[in-house]
Amino acid sequence: MRRKDFLITLPILASVLKGCIKKGYTEVILIDKELCVGCGECLNYCSYNAIYLPKTSNFWVVEEECVGCGKCEDVCEDNAIYVEQRGFDINSDNCVGCGDCAKVCEGNAITFDPEEYHVRRGRCTGCGDCIEACKYDAIYWAGGKAEINTSKCVKCGDCYKACSYGAIEKAEAHINPDKCTYCGNCYEVCKYDAVIKGTPAIMDKEKCTNCGKCYAVCPTGAIKGELYKATILQENCVACTSCISHCEFGAIKRG
Amino acid sequence: MKKRVIIFTIFLTFFLGFSHLHSKDCPSRLFANLKPIGDTNFYWGVELKSFFYNYNGENYLFGSISSAISYEGESSSFQFEGIYKDKKYTPCKDLPEISPLQIRRLNFEKYLSDNFSINLGRQEITVATGLVLDDFFDGLSFKIGDRSYLSGGAGVYSIYVAKEAIGCQKCFFYNYRPCWKNLVHTEWGDILMGFLQYNLRIKKSEYGLLYVRSQTQDPNMRTNTLSLYSKIRITRSFQIFSEFAIQHFDIDNDIAYGINTSVLKTIRYSSFGSLSLKLSYLHGSTGENSMFTPIFGTTYFGERQHFTVRQGNIYGAVLKYIPSIYKKSSIKFAYYLNSEKSAFDFISDEFDATLELNLDKREKYKILATYSVWSGVYKGSQIAVNLRIVF
Q1: B74: exposed, middle or buried (C-beta count within 10 Å: 0-12, 13-18, 19+)?
Q2: Domains of chain A
Q3: Window B:130-189, CB contacts with A under 8 Å
Q4: Residue A142 in contact with partner chain B when CB distance is under 8 A
Q5: Would the N or C end of chain B have less CB density within 10 A of its end CB?
């Protein structure tokens, strides 16, 4: 127990502090309704019945909105949340490296490796299927085999799909999970179903203590809640600030 | 885990490679699905194949594991593939035992310029419809040109890797093709070959001239073959393939000729899928003393009528349907009729029904089931199931 908390629990000191209130020495404690998740944790640390919360909030996951980033799983101390596959990933079979995802990525999290299309000449049989498939005249003949003019190539992936011999090496997007903001723009914009969304988080209501940490960290608003907000009863508050130090969401502040 | 798989592949490849310079061909998707080793220009892959046959009520089982490593650089490439094959209850009783451990590919290709490359080692060469040239050989080849090109090569016919040798399920055929039976007994180095080809591309069609020289220990098989071929794409859904070859036999200056031609028409409906019809005709003539015998060619006609080219006339009709709901699958019905009625009438006609199922776009996971029934001297029926997995 911290020294301050200990002192507040002493009846004599409490009465002194109450006296201070009456004399106007105390600060005003306020609750930011935007940040409060109604977890009720502050109630445990208020010795003066100065916080009013009609009911503890409770939370659930909306699967359609969840991108499986796993942030909720990380913060849940009660192991009540499970995410099987996390965050966004690229299905390399479908990705043609067109670059649409990189243009809309909010976190600059998408890189390309390889960056350009390329013919593996050792595997090219010179069948010409890729040349026929290319609508942009970006493939030409060289030594009876295909070769790609990268300045004309728009990375549509048609040549890659047309080649039966695995001779076309395509450009391919990769997502850096450290930079990903889970905005989901890449998923929305991809025409080739190449962006894979993580599996939705699964919440075990038996284990959930409604602490609200998952609600607070969810970047896509996929965790919804039946929300109640706490209120400071100023007539009881002695401004001991214990509630401030125990609120993990930073919702309680000095006035 | 991935590292261990790569190390295992490298070990397996070299282990298989140094065992024996023998191999046989089976349809493979290994080189189309190689994966890079880290950030290097090296690639690796492993392929498992299994063939189950019920032939006239008897069961046969073949299986193989192939392992490959390739290097694909800017100015050169290198390919290496080893294979282990095993068989149980096979009917290939009269054929020589060949080591189950073999090399299928071992070649180095150097790109001397954008338009000129040379290839050294065990390699595959396919020209036109495959009537005259479609096989493996050990030697040197070159290719020069851009859109149209000149290519040529010379070397030793890789008889144990040959597509028409005892590979996969195809050994049945050699049981009743005496001349090929003799050929698979041939030792490595007994057959030398050289070829020169000019391939001309006009729009989306190809035309060409091919010359092949066969120099064998057997004087009956010393031949010069000249082939004129075309692959004409009138539209994307209508194509005509044809090859006409003349063969000259040194021993008696006899002349024979072969024709392989087909027409392919595809009709596509977005809601229904696609329907393809292929009509084909194959003919091999008989000279005064000889018959058309393209040692390095393969022409696939049905599951059982898998002839290189035989004398007489074979007509084929294949109807293939790819449903729009699952484009990775297909159903195929084929009928082949051999109009030649002679002592060599092993198969008069054949009907095949095939169901093909690919579990992915790159055909790494494939299931192929075929029911065949045929008439003739060796009439019978067969159910075949092929499985393929590429890692």
Answers
A1: exposed
A2: 1-57+229-255 (3.30.70.20), 63-83+201-226 (3.30.70.20), 89-196 (3.30.70.20)
A3: 143-147, 149, 151
A4: yes
A5: N
CA–CA separation, B241 vs B281, rounded Å? Answer: 10
If one compares A175 and B83, the residue with the highest pLDDT of the two is A175
pLDDT at position B325 over 50: yes
**CATH hierarchy code of domain B2-390:** 2.40.160.100
Which residues in chain B have their CB less than 8 angstroms from residue A132's CB?
204, 233, 236
Among candidate residues A36, A175, A187, the one with its CA nearest the CA of residue A108 = A175
User: Residue B176: its pLDDT value, please?
Assistant: 45
Spell out the domain ranges in chain B.
Answer: 2-390
The ipTM, to two decimals, is 0.73
Is the alpha carbon torsion for A208, A212, A215, A217 positive or negative?
negative
Tell me the pLDDT tens digit for each residue of B4-49. 666 655 555 444 444 333 333 456 788 888 988 988 889 999 999 8
CA distance B149 to chain A (A): 6
Q: Give me the pLDDT at residue A100, please.
A: 92
B374/chain A closest Cα distance in angstroms:
32
Work out the pLDDT band at B158, boundaries 50, 70, 90: confident
From the list A48, A57, A15, A9, the residue with the least C-alpha distance to A29 is A48
Q: Which residues of A touch B70 (CB under 8 A)?
A: 122-123
Backbone angles phi, psi at A21, to 5 degrees: -60, -50
Q: Taking CB atoms and an 8 Å limit, are B32 and A123 in contact across chains? A: yes
Cα four-point dihedral sign B374, B376, B378, B380: positive
* Of the partner residues B31, B117, B236, the one whose CB lies closest to the CB of residue A143: B117
Option in A140, A147, A166 nearest B32 (CB): A166
**Structure token pair of residue A20:** 């201070």
Q: Which of A154-163, A239-248, B9-18 has the lowest mean pLDDT?
A: B9-18
Please indicate whether, in this complex, the C-beta atoms of A164 and B32 are within 8 angstroms of each other: yes
Residue A224, min C-alpha distance to chain B (Å): 38
Pick the more confident residue, A152 or A7. Answer: A152
| Record: contact A141-B116, CB cut-off 8 A | no
